[in-house]
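Please fill in the sequence for the structure shown.

STRUCTURE ENCODING:
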């Protein structure tokens, strides 16, 4: 043994230990290679694992008898099965039955973008395959991602998966519970319990030396300097030192078990092949040290079977959300995330309109679901995206990643088109009737405004005398023409209800009457001879919404703003209550821009190292922050249904930022469109939109998440992320005292910033002061990560939000109402 190493090896465990080495390949689709190349790799990995296990099973390579391989994701298995021969499929099934190869219930390592339908579909794939040959999967693992929506536990349990092994990656993230390598019960919102092992990094076994020629140093920060491919003697010396130190340290930390699981990769990289050398190295270790420290290759289910031999009755039970630190990647490609979210809602509409797949086939639904899955997978680009954003590999992988969202959108809308045609949808043809079906596909009633779709040449109809008729009642509906010439009406629809509307134009044989302009000159209109109407007039019948120089007011709300500041008041007139938080730092929908300077802003190394130093702050200590200021206010529309005001802001980092605030006349609802142009900057940036709403100190804040709704900073696993969370449809404030709610729909952007924007030590759940409460911002753009985020955020964007008051609802009803509000009605032309 190397003397320099042996002198430092005095830390040895006091009791016998067993280490369970779980061999797998971490699946990153696109981080290390092209996506299709990664697919090819993983298919071949399974073939390699089969070759190893078959050779051991036949007795040709007895030294490999202990080899075990865990398929980290079922996606790899699915791709293998698509190309495998009949003999390979049979051999794979036999290896699974023997326990040499294991199926994980995880389909891919995901962000929090998928809705519950998609989670259930993905988590059921491996189990359904196993059932075809009489097998059952009881365990799932994830690697790299650092959290999950609370609905993730429910989805696994509903797919008959009992155990989850989580390999947390603490780069810009953190493990929960205050320690790694510990189990707990994760109780779902329905009361079921998932046994979770909160584990170590997914390649920690490489750092301990389990794999020859793949000696890592990432989590372990010791004094040893080495390369991946060290000579065998030095490799073994380093392994012995680190293994003994690690187990000794577990004893010092009062670790309660005599065994510990460790994940190991076959090469020193993500997307690595299986490696039979691990089995040989472990056998050699056990021959020398097995009386004190035994290492066994194991599958997930084998490890959990050992764990369940212990008394688990005293394990902690945690209910609540486990926010993913790494879900923020979705804001680095915000436009494509917006397209993804729209596609996901569109696919839900298809499923509800056509549950029997009479129009859009199950195969078409599956194809769209697969595209959604591939976009929502956690890899957000090539590993050098920030260091060399011009590199062809970076550009190639970025476009292909974003193409998943585009493909999901195309397939979802194609399925919707087929479904609507099956509902008497009228395609383009002469003499199409001006008849429309409006459908509420959401599971709650809603009152929303819809724009009647007209083709360009049909807008002349709106210049004539016409009525918009509700065919059910035969009565005309109120409508409003916008400044762009669109026709808008308002409807209240129950869950699943549809309504037929049509445009009625009185017939006339008089060509002059048909023109809609029977007067040669009008004597009361303030329009000059050049035809421009630029004199302000108060209508004879005032519209229900009053628009002032610095305010917008209906019977329900009053919104006030100040020039060179922002929106200063949002008053609920029915309660005479201010809906903006009294402790707010920024006005409602004010843009907040952050940039962290680098010493040399055009040096790739500086650009990356500046980001790397941020840790969990997502910004540097020298961050520069600027909040927007209103510079112009313009009334765009006012009529019987709504008023529309544009507020233009000046803010650094954005060459244009405008709010289009649409206040409804007949209900307590305001829709806000955020439109802006982001400058292209290589430095790490964040853009937030302030959402400082409140129903008072007594009201609870809820986030509507995948398969559930949670109270951030309350319904969470201890030690989990407080700073932000990913939502499905939005957030809401609910007062249990009077059953009132304020919903905030987030149609396009899923990230809600909850913690302070200031740089500093980050608080974790159960560690924050008891009286602290979250702030609320939409975190719409970020490029802070130093590896695989999109380097620049430049471009044009529009993101939509809606604020609405509700009464006599509990939180469950409010969440459904939020879905209905965000989903919008479906409208299409019919025969």
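FILLED IN BY: designer on duty
SEQUENCE:
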């Amino acid at each position: 043994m190397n003397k320099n190493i042996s002198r430092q090896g005095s830390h040895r465990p006091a009791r016998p230990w067993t280490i369970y080495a779980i061999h797998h390949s971490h699946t990153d689709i696109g981080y290390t290679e092209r996506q299709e190349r990664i697919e090819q790799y993983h298919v071949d990995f399974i073939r390699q694992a089969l070759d190893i296990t078959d050779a051991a099973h036949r007795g040709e390579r007895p030294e490999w008898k202990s080899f075990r391989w865990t398929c980290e994701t079922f996606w790899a298995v699915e791709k293998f099965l698509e190309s495998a021969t009949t003999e390979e499929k049979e051999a794979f099934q036999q290896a699974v039955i023997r326990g040499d190869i294991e199926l994980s219930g995880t389909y891919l390592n995901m962000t929090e973008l998928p809705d519950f339908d998609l989670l259930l579909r993905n988590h059921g794939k491996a189990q359904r395959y196993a059932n075809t040959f009489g097998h059952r999967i009881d365990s799932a693992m994830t690697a790299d991602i650092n959290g999950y929506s609370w609905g993730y536990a429910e989805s696994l349990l509903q797919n008959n998966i009992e155990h989850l092994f989580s390999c947390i990656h603490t780069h810009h993230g953190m493990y929960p519970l205050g320690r790694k390598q510990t189990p707990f019960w994760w109780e779902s919102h329905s009361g079921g319990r998932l046994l979770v092992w909160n584990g170590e990094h997914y390649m920690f076994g490489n750092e301990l030396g389990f794999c020859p020629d793949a000696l890592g140093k990432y989590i372990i920060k010791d004094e040893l300097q080495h390369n991946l491919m060290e000579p065998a003697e030095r490799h073994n010396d380093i392994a012995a030192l680190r293994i003994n130190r690690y187990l000794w340290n577990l004893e010092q930390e009062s670790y309660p078990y005599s065994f510990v699981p460790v994940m190991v990769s076959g090469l020193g990289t993500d997307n690595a092949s299986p490696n039979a050398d691990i089995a040989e190295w472990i056998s050699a270790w056990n021959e020398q040290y097995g009386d004190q420290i035994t290492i066994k290759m194991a599958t997930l289910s084998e490890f959990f079977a050992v764990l369940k031999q212990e008394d688990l009755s005293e394990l902690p039970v945690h209910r609540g959300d486990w926010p993913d630190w790494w879900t923020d990647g979705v804001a680095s490609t915000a436009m494509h995330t917006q397209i993804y979210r729209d596609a996901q809602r569109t696919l839900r509409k298809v499923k509800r309109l056509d549950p029997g797949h009479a129009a859009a086939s199950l195969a078409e639904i599956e194809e769209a679901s697969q595209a959604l899955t591939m976009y929502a997978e956690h890899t957000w680009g090539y590993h050098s995206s920030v260091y060399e954003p011009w590199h062809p590999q970076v550009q190639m992988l970025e476009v292909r990643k974003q193409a998943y969202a585009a493909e999901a959108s195309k397939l979802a809308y194609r399925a919707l088109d087929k479904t609507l045609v099956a509902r008497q949808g009228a395609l383009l043809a002469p003499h199409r009737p001006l008849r429309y079906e409006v459908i509420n596909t959401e599971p709650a009633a809603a009152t929303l405004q819809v724009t009647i779709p007209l083709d360009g040449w049909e807008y002349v109809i709106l210049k004539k005398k016409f009525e918009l008729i509700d065919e059910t009642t035969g009565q005309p509906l109120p409508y409003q023409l916008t400044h762009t010439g669109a026709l808008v009406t308002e409807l209240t629809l129950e869950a699943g209800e549809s309504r037929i509307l049509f445009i009625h134009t009185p017939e006339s044989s008089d060509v002059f009457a048909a023109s809609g302009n029977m007067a040669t000159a009008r004597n009361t209109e303030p329009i000059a001879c050049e035809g421009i109407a630029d004199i302000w007039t108060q209508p004879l019948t005032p519209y229900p919404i009053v628009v002032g120089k610095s305010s917008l007011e209906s019977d329900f709300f009053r919104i006030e703003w100040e020039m060179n500041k922002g929106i200063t008041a949002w008053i609920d007139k029915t309660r005479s209550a201010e809906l903006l938080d009294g402790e707010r730092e920024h006005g409602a929908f004010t843009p907040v821009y952050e940039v962290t300077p680098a010493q040399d802003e055009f040096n790739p190394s500086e650009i990356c190292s500046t980001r790397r130093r941020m840790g969990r702050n997502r910004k540097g200590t020298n961050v520069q922050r600027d909040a927007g200021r209103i510079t112009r206010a313009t009334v765009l529309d006012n009529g019987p249904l709504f008023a529309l005001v544009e507020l233009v802001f000046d803010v650094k980092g954005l060459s244009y930022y405008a709010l289009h605030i649409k206040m409804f006349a007949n209900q307590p609802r305001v829709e806000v469109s955020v439109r802006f142009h982001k400058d292209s900057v290589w430095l790490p940036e964040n853009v937030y939109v302030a959402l400082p709403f409140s129903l008072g100190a007594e009201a609870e804040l809820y986030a509507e998440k995948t398969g559930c709704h949670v109270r951030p900073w309350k319904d969470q696993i201890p030690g989990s992320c407080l700073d932000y969370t990913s939502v499905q449809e939005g957030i809401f404030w609910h007062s249990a005292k009077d059953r009132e709610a304020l919903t905030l729909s987030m149609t396009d952007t899923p990230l809600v910033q909850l913690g302070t924007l200031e740089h500093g030590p980050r608080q974790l759940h159960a560690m924050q002061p008891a009286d602290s409460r979250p702030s609320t911002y939409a975190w719409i753009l970020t490029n802070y990560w130093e590896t695989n985020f999109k380097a620049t955020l430049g471009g044009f964007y529009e993101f939509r939000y809606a604020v609405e008051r509700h009464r006599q609802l509990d939180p469950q009803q409010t969440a459904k109402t939020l879905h209905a509000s965000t989903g919008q009605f479906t409208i299409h032309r019919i025969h």
